[in-house]
Amino acid sequence: MNYETILGSVDFLEYLRGKKATFLLSCSVTKTCEVPNISQAGIPGKLYLTPTLDSEFLCTKEVRSLDDIAQTPKGVPTPALITRAIHELHPYSNIEILDLGLQIKPKLDFFKVHNFDLEPSENIETGANINAMEVFQKGVEFGSYYVTNDDYIILAESVPSGTTTANAVAKVLGYECEGYFSSSFKNNPNDIKSQVISRALNFINPNSDIFTKLGVVSDNMILFNAGFILGSRAKNSKIILAGGTQMAAVLLVVNSILQSMEGEIDSTNIALCTTSWVNKDKNSNIKALLEQLDFKINAYASDFDFSLSSHGALKLYDEGEAKEGVGCGGALCYATLNGLSKQDITTKIETLLG
Amino acid sequence: MNYETILGSVDFLEYLRGKKATFLLSCSVTKTCEVPNISQAGIPGKLYLTPTLDSEFLCTKEVRSLDDIAQTPKGVPTPALITRAIHELHPYSNIEILDLGLQIKPKLDFFKVHNFDLEPSENIETGANINAMEVFQKGVEFGSYYVTNDDYIILAESVPSGTTTANAVAKVLGYECEGYFSSSFKNNPNDIKSQVISRALNFINPNSDIFTKLGVVSDNMILFNAGFILGSRAKNSKIILAGGTQMAAVLLVVNSILQSMEGEIDSTNIALCTTSWVNKDKNSNIKALLEQLDFKINAYASDFDFSLSSHGALKLYDEGEAKEGVGCGGALCYATLNGLSKQDITTKIETLLG
């Protein structure tokens, strides 16, 4: 098991080999997830529960706000399984949850659940109605005071229908993004997503400032994490953005905000880590998104797949159904950095599935 | 997989079982390596590159200052493969490079490369021309302020033709050493080495002080690490000297310097770890070297060999071509202390070789 370098050099990741990580799961709900068939990251009609259940499962291996592990119609199990399996094999030193607007709070004792007084954001079809500046500033503030006792931070996300908001964000900010955004479906439901995005764009006044625009089309995770990245540069903490095209959108937001204020960023200590499913996806292009940044970024993809498994539900990943989420790409890179084998991880995930 | 005790008791090593290690690779070039056929630790005519390439490969799995992994004429692959394989299976928590006079700086980001403003030393055939006191004192100073966050330090070396300088050092200091020093060749090129050593000894004035003598026949690695060991006693850090007869020579220098100043050392927390290839070598005798120390020393040898491999290039190790270097003996003991199996290591090394 290894990783590929999408952009940059191996040095950042190699330096972290054997070092300790804090895992931060940033969770939010955008009511965009209520659009039928927009995402398969959860139970139809209950997608708002997914980040809550992911948090619970990652921390405790239990799904407390529902009877069963979130299963999608086709039975693609949540990528939280992957992230949790790795935690059982070679634990992250610390897991903390960032509640960036959950509809249902996760039922967790002992684990730190940071509360930022944020509500789920609205469906972007009618305008997300987010105070974008405020969410961004909460991210900046948290990023600038947050300290880990570990060597680096893995910053992950769980936001159902988040690739739709991410795509809308990139489009509104003027980036080339046609066909670049990923989906939890094998057959990217482009019609549905495009329709949602174009409806959202109707609410955009081209003369508005960047935060006003982002308040219409984005989600709390994107805004907060863009702030977190900028704020955390004060301490120059090493951060792995664990995710696919949604995390790329976070970086595009950072880029646009810097452009708007003629600012700069020392991005040396930030990298993006994703899965092979995103990296090899023919219906999206994360590299093309990252190449539009004005700053340099290291980006890697784990080469893990389910070729060693005969479990039908897991095989769906290799077929392109579900590709990222709950930081599983970052977790898989972390697994490589800590000597775990593909066989170990496969077996553990199969055990978790039961 | 296990280790043998050459001297002392198992307690030192057993205490370190499961504990965390920082790996320090001390690299230097002595132009003695330009003597034809004196060593097979690298590419003929380019042996000065070996420590640079070893550093790059250990840290990043990439050889950046050359197109291909250093291969010797007979195709004995660098022991850096062993040290790196173990890093991938059970990572050292931290790797740092000590530049003790490299001709070419390793191309590494993030990794700490300590610069001591040292140049490659001259061929001892014409006198090494080292300011031995200065290099030694740099080692003392570094040893006395260096702190690791880990439980112990593995101090390794990469110095092509370093067994020749080590042998010359032991001889000049008056130790019994006829036939005790190892070589990277199966058939120790004693004629060439003896000639180089006897030429070097022509430059020795028996009435000179120890540092003047060492300035003629040693290399920067030996001098610096002797200082490092003495300096590090202030903190009493646990140190594994990962190497064969060259590391034994470092200890002989420590011994002679202590004799000259009527000093003492608490050597409780220092041990030497080497390979079975050195330990079982009939053309050298590391135990006989270590038994001449006035202080007690724990010394161990891994029992790892390539009996599980069918790879021709690796089999050469078992035949006596290449025996140590890049701390592979210490790395193999570390592997045992952390539960790795001979099969895991063999497979990983074979994967690295491709």
Can you give a write-up of this model?
Chain A is of the alpha/beta class and 354 residues long. Chain A has an eight-stranded mixed β-sheet. Chain A has one domain: 3-Layer(aba) Sandwich (Rossmann fold). Helices cover 39% and strands 12% of the residues of chain A.
Short description:
The structure is a homodimer of 354-residue chains. The first copy, chain A, is α/β, with parallel strands linked by helices and 354 residues long.
Any key phrases for this structure?
homodimer, 354 residues, alpha/beta, Rossmann fold, eight-stranded mixed β-sheet, 8 strands, 12% strand, Nicotinate-nucleotide--dimethylbenzimidazole phosphoribosyltransferase (chains A, B), Nict_dMeBzImd_PRibTrfase_arc (chains A, B), Nict_dMeBzImd_PRibTrfase (chains A, B), transferase (chains A, B), glycosyltransferase (chains A, B)
Helix and strand topology:
The structure is a homodimer of 354-residue chains.
Chain A: E1 3-7, H1 11-15, E2 21-27, H2 50-60, H3 80-89, E3 94-99, E4 112-115, H4 132-145, E5 152-158, H5 162-172, H6 190-201, H7 210-217, H8 220-232, E6 239-242, H9 245-260, E7 270-274, H10 276-279, H11 286-290, E8 298-302, H12 312-318, H13 328-337, H14 342-353
